[in-house]
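Morning!

This is the sequence you dropped in the shared folder:
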Amino acid sequence: MRKAIDSPFSPGSDTVPHVWAGRTPQLSDWRDHLRPRRMAGLHERGRTILGEAGLGKSSLVRRLTSEASAAGDWVTPQLRIPTGADPLKRVAGALLTVADQAGLAAAREKKITELLRSVERVAAAGVSSSMREQPGPEPYSALTNLLIEIGRAALRQGRSIIVIHVDEVQNITDDAALSQLLTALGDALTHEEPLTLPGGRQIDAALPLAVYLTGLPEFADMAGARKGATFARRFQTTMLAPIEDDDLIAALQPFVTEGWPVAGDDGHDERVFMEPDAQHAIVELACGEPFLFQLAGERAWYAGTSAIITAEDVMSGWDDARYEAEGHVLRILDRLPSRERQFVETMAELDPTDRTLTTIARHMGYEKGTAVGPTGQRLDRQRGIVTRGKPYTFRHRAVEAYLTTDWPDMS
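The structure's back. Tokens below.
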């Protein structure tokens, strides 16, 4: 009865899982704040959503952009930036597609034709020395101008906004490329266009444009150091935290109360149920991580074929998944600089009540807490792995479980 093609769990990155859990504040921000304000011509900053791998950054924005597309908005695909790639080339290519949706390619105005040609050159060359030697606007200026023209087209329609999603932004290591990209997007976000309201009254309206940047936590330092206050004024940064257990329980509740619909062999719908003990076992294994939640759910689904997912199914499936779960946490720890990793591991060795900054510092070989204060601050504000306080606590629950318990070996 439980077939692979019917599994509603998706542990792979960049997918929108059928079993969705949490992230209500971010979903509400899009539906109730960002989109309505931009549709009304009101200024609203772009959104930067950062966090460690496995917290569902890309999946979250893909869900938002799916909703936007269904509402008739003009949406770029997820623009993932590989290491060493030129982000302006990726964004320029996507904007040309949106410009076609907006009808700009059919425009007869000479300035539109020249603008599209400029952006086509950016899509081909990016931020290269040959591009800089050519006459015409800088790459960022061409992108900004095209965004403004697309925004004007959306304003004329009065029912759509443009949504841009740039993913893996921490891979933009070239200062010039990052500066030009952020400047182009930021200038378009702050641009104002004269708009005539019913009755003849004129106002200056912001363009119907929404920008989402997603990536690892270090991007906050990269953008802040290179763009300073300008970046902060134009983009609002959210550091994602693990999902609360209550939200994960709620996501699985339909399995318990009404069952998950699947196609039966006879063509009629059947339902797969989940025991409450299985529901709680999946949540306990997930440690608040969307990736681990989907992984545990998928392996539990595959662990049997009956109409009821049991706690035994969960643990049997997890036995096959534990090495993948361990590798997931180790990749997070391995990315930490040596002092940050030492801080986290030292903190894990202490009794939870003894995890004060002074005690952590002494066990690291320093006399005063001030010697490791900046390290603790980075792990809190930039990494989202610990929470400073008296005592310090772990915010990243999978890291805590790996360092302080037998997780992921639950046998």
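Headline: Confidence is low (pLDDT under 50) at residues 129-133.

More detail when I'm at my desk.
O.
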